[in-house]
Specification:
Layout (H helix, E strand, L loop, with lengths): L2 H24 L6 E13 L6 E6 L8 E4 L3 E8 L7 E4 L24 E7 L5 E7 L11 E6 L13 E10 L4 H9 L9 E4 L20 E4 L4 E8 L6 E5 L4 E6 L2 E8 L1 E4 L4 E7 L8 E7 L4 H4 L3 E8 L21 H8 L27 E6 L4 E3 L2 E3 L5 E3 L6 H6 L20 E3 L3 E4 L3 E8 L5 E5 L4 E8 L17 E2 L1 E4 L3 E8 L4 E7 L2 H5 L3 E7 L37 H22 L1
Parallel strand pairs: 1-4, 3-8, 9-12, 11-19, 20-26, 23-24, 25-33
Antiparallel strand pairs: 1-2, 4-6, 5-7, 7-8, 9-10, 12-17, 13-16, 13-18, 14-15, 14-17, 18-19, 21-22, 26-31, 27-30, 27-32, 28-29, 28-31, 32-33
Helix pairs in contact: 1-7
The structure holds 2-acetamido-2-deoxy-beta-D-glucopyranose (12 copies).
One 2-acetamido-2-deoxy-beta-D-glucopyranose (NAG) binds next to helix 3.
Length: 597
């Protein structure tokens, strides 16, 4: 680092500190501000031994972890140094009253290449483990993801002893082709085919077998002290592969999923589907005679063909005596029977007596006694051709993103951007491509049945809310299926898996005004149109139920003439600029101390 850039870094850091403390002082009664700078760019990495362009944040792959506390105000200045547009989606962050910050095409104009844009939102009434990722152009297949932790406020106890450490783990299938090549395959109507491997924290497998794993692959090592308990936050950030996660000779005590504390139960392994997040408590209670394998292996596949597609990392005790040895711990041996996996999913329940983000118990919102106001049966199908193009559908509709985001179109009263006619039951007849969205009822209670008619596993996600997963079973859902719903301790979370040939039912309280994405997390099907939005409008427009459009809102599509040009600059502000800012900040501090105290 040259002396000018190091002094620049110093000023920048100093200025940042003062700003944060100033904001804390000025709003001591209000909620603290936390800011992050994200520089998104390509770097070359070879996770599977083949050099390729991956998407890094601040030169890190995976990106930095956002680690904040309930009700914090978070600002993230995203600098897009890619050669294409970008949006960062904060998956599972509810964005109370501000779908303007959700980072998907239905609510935000993309950040053009070389521009920057600052997200600003409050993590209101939330706790838990989430992750962020780039939502456009299949970019998640190239990286750009990172962890998002919301800690409990100190006054609210967590339902377990404070862990000795907090470890974020990303697992996901991976292709050695980059995302632009993968995108081209999908545009050409081709299947992505089998992934080339599974990465753990952006790294390839440990060489547990010389035939299966080439030499020279950099693998992840997680170091732990013996006799402690760690919180592992595991996220499946992959394209479309369901993974079984396990650690040799160790139990995984499930404690939290996507913002809810679960009934604590031990698992020897857990299926984690694309887009899902879980917190486990890991006791380092084994002897240190060797290191231990951490494994993420593909689920429901022909093991002999998929052996190479296995993620292997190392758990190393600080007093470890040697390397991990021998075969990997086996996963469930049931490739043709998904019953075990579904039963495991059903066993994940809400701890109704634990406090979540608020002091009152999680279960005090008695969802089982609320009357349903709207019912949607959403059914997918295997990919099909529509007007000669390979597309993915939901209820017979393949979604087309409008060039003007839905929320922005509403703000400017533009007509004809979308249709509020998403069908309550799957359309019969030939499929269509349409910008068709769900007319949500503000303060309604919506029941959504997700019916998977595809041959693959799907995970569905809805922005803006946590929903209750009340039931799942094989076969077609019918009115009688309601008799099997869990009306007491179904888990509230932000994703739900739906097994092929099966259904999953969710309940959601539409109390968050905005336009919210409802999609499959499987990247290829999402890219090909398997999504929609739920538009929730308060008939009495006010600033209490929805925040005003942000000052820095980007404009595009029919509104692009409202967009002011942005100075395309790749440099941080100059030293002089920072000195001035610093001086100004000192003046404000001085004034604050001497005049207002
Ligand atoms: C992806 O790889 C292709 C070659 O296979 C290359 O032409 C292209 O520039 C790469 N894209 C990125 C973003 O690295
Ligand atoms: C871009 O970054 C600069 C410098 O940090 C900041 O002042 C500006 O507000 C950002 N622009 C937007 C649109 O967020
Ligand atoms: C549920 O939460 C309560 C309250 O924090 C805690 O004492 C209890 O151990 C938890 N129960 C289970 C089964 O995890
Ligand atoms: C997040 O911050 C808390 C303190 O606020 C710390 O205990 C924890 O280790 C941090 N987690 C990560 C993953 O950085
Ligand atoms: C490595 O994997 C190959 C292919 O599955 C298998 O035949 C071989 O026995 C394994 N080697 C060891 C040492 O386990
Ligand atoms: C989970 O397993 C650990 C041993 O790894 C044991 O100490 C603990 O009591 C078990 N907890 C539950 C809730 O079964
Ligand atoms: C250490 O633990 C491993 C696996 O649990 C076991 O196979 C081994 O016998 C143990 N060694 C000693 C010295 O206790
Ligand atoms: C699994 O794949 C192997 C290798 O391609 C093949 O020989 C075997 O028949 C397959 N097994 C099943 C049950 O499909
Ligand atoms: C739900 O509906 C039933 C009958 O339609 C009604 O009697 C009951 O009061 C309603 N419950 C609530 C909580 O609104
Ligand atoms: C949307 O729903 C509201 C009631 O929530 C209703 O008044 C309105 O007519 C509906 N709009 C359409 C286009 O169906
Ligand atoms: C898909 O739907 C058709 C028609 O209802 C049914 O015959 C078929 O079994 C379903 N397949 C799956 C995998 O659900
Ligand atoms: C909401 O706030 C904005 C800006 O703060 C203001 O222009 C607008 O009039 C307010 N709207 C209502 C309905 O209060």
């Amino acid at each position: 680092m040259s002396s000018s850039s190091s002094s620049r870094a110093f000023f920048f850091f100093f200025f940042f500190l003062i700003n944060v403390s100033l904001l804390l002082t000025l709003s001591s009664a209000a909620d603290p501000f936390v800011s992050y700078e994200f520089e998104v760019s390509y770097i070359t990495a070879s996770p599977l031994g083949v050099p390729q362009q991956v998407i890094a944040i601040n030169n890190k792959f995976p990106g930095p972890t956002i680690n904040v506390t309930t009700n914090n105000n978070v600002a993230v200045n995203v600098r897009n140094k890619l050669d294409e547009s970008l949006l960062i989606h904060w998956s599972g962050i509810q964005q109370r009253r501000t779908s303007w910050q959700d980072g998907v095409l239905g609510t935000n104009c993309p950040i053009p290449a070389k521009w920057n844009w600052t997200y600003q939102f409050q993590v209101k009434d939330q706790i838990g483990s989430f992750f962020y990722f780039p939502s456009l152009h299949l970019q998640r297949a190239a990286g750009g993801f990172g962890g998002f932790i919301i800690n409990n406020r100190p006054i609210i106890p967590i339902p377990f002893d404070t862990p000795h450490g907090d470890i974020v783990v990303f697992i996901g299938d991976w292709y050695t082709r980059n995302h632009t090549d993968l995108r081209k395959a999908l545009d050409d109507g081709k299947d992505l085919g089998m992934p080339d491997g599974v990465l753990i924290n952006g790294k390839g497998p440990y060489r547990y077998n010389d035939t299966l794993v080439p030499d020279g692959i950099d693998y992840e090592t997680i170091e732990v002290h013996p006799g402690k308990t760690y919180r592992l936050r595991v996220h499946n950030v992959g394209v479309s592969t369901s993974l079984n996660f396990r650690i040799q000779s160790h139990n995984l005590l499930l404690a939290e999923t996507e913002g809810s504390y679960t009934v604590q139960q031990n698992y020897t392994s857990l299926d984690i589907h694309v887009g899902q997040s879980y917190s486990f408590l890991l006791s380092t209670d084994q002897n240190a005679s060797t290191d231990y394998y951490i494994v993420a292996s593909a689920r429901f596949v022909n093991e002999s063909r998929w052996q190479r597609v296995t993620g292997v990392a190392i758990l190393r005790y600080t007093n470890s005596k040697g390397k991990a040895r021998g075969p990997l711990p086996p996963g469930p041996d049931d490739q043709f029977d998904k019953t075990y996996s579904m039963n495991q999913a059903r066993s994940i329940r809400w701890n109704v007596s634990a406090s979540g983000a608020r002091p009152n118990p999680q279960g005090s919102f008695r969802y089982g006694s609320i009357n349903v106001t709207d019912i949607y049966v959403l059914k997918n199908k295997p990919l099909e051709k529509i007007n000669g193009k390979q597309r993915a559908t939901l209820s017979g509709n393949s979604f087309v993103n409008p060039s003007t985001p839905i929320r922005l179109a509403d703000q400017y009263k533009l007509k004809g951007v979308y249709k509020l006619d998403f069908p309550t039951k799957p359309l019969t007849g030939s499929p269509r491509t349409e910008t068709s969205i769900i007319n949500g009822t503000y303060r309604g209670f919506m029941e959504v049945i997700l019916q998977n008619n595809d041959t693959k596993m799907h995970t569905y996600h809805m922005s803006g809310y946590a929903f209750f997963v009340v039931g799942m079973d094989f076969g077609d859902w019918s009115e009688n299926s309601r008799g099997t719903y869990n009306k007491w301790d179904g888990i509230a979370r932000t994703t739900a898996q739906v097994y092929p040939g099966a259904w999953t039912a969710i309940l959601v309280s539409l109390d968050n005004v905005g336009v919210w994405n409802l999609r499959t997390e499987n990247l290829d099907s999402w890219y090909l149109g398997q999504e929609t939005y739920v538009r929730v409008v308060n008939p009495e427009v006010n600033n209490k139920t929805e925040l005003p459009i942000p000052d820095n809102a980007l404009f595009c599509g029919a509104l692009s003439k409202l967009q002011k040009p942005q100075k395309v600059s790749s440099d941080a502000p100059s030293i002089t600029g920072n000195k001035l800012k610093l001086l100004f900040t000192w003046l404000v501090v001085w004034a604050w101390i001497h005049i207002f105290q």
